[in-house]
Specification:
two-stranded antiparallel sheet; Jelly Rolls; mainly beta; single chain
Length: about 110
């Protein structure tokens, strides 16, 4: 199992979930959105990678280098799905079915 060490912020408040990575440039961290099955990249400054996770934090969806002004929707129950937004090209080595483990940098 390969380890990637990148700071992850857990978005739990309404405002942090609404804002996400909007307006960020030269991102060096990711955002984790629990109980979430869709995101948008409107008003983003850079492309991102998006990882969809099931309730066991296993990867069920990978979309890389998503440009600004897109909508991404994972067709699964919102209560059983989470989304991880990462800086572009961070997910190159990840695969469907792989389980992720987190140590959250911040809970916002």
């Amino acid at each position: 199992m390969q380890q990637i060490k990148i700071p992850i912020k857990k978005a739990v408040s309404f405002s942090s979930r609404l804002k996400g990575l909007i307006g960020q440039t030269k991102m060096n961290y990711g955002m984790f959105f629990p109980e979430c099955n869709s995101i948008h990249t409107f008003f983003m400054k850079e492309a991102i990678d998006v990882i969809g996770l099931n309730e066991k934090n296993e990867i069920i969806f990978i979309k890389q280098n998503i440009k600004p002004n897109k909508i991404i929707w994972i067709h699964r129950n919102i209560k059983k799905t989470s989304i991880l937004e990462l800086p572009k090209n961070t997910s190159n080595h990840l695969q469907i079915g792989e389980k992720l483990f987190f140590k959250f940098k911040d809970i916002i």
